[in-house]
Specification:
single chain; 75 residues; mainly alpha; Cytochrome Bc1 Complex, Chain D, domain 2
């Protein structure tokens, strides 16, 4: 899901696209709870939708944890 659905806006290598980069250095200012909340509730006024209808809080927390530790793929 991360690379298919999120990658459609954030880039298949998560380096950014329509949405910002999701690489750990770009997310360093956020903690796990903040990223989980963004995933679940979206960001009003942007293209970032809420995913709470499709993901549980545990699913969103797993994705957030993965984003904070992901090693970038080659461009």
């Amino acid at each position: 899901m991360l690379y298919q659905d999120c990658g459609s806006c954030h880039g298949m290598t998560l380096r950014g696209g329509l949405g910002p980069s999701l690489l750990p250095e770009a997310l360093a200012r956020y903690n796990l709870d903040a990223i989980t909340g963004i995933i679940l509730h979206g960001v009003p006024g942007t293209a970032m939708p809420p995913w709470s209808d499709l993901l549980t809080e545990d699913d969103a927390a797993w994705l957030a944890d993965h984003l904070l530790s992901v090693k970038p793929a080659s461009p």
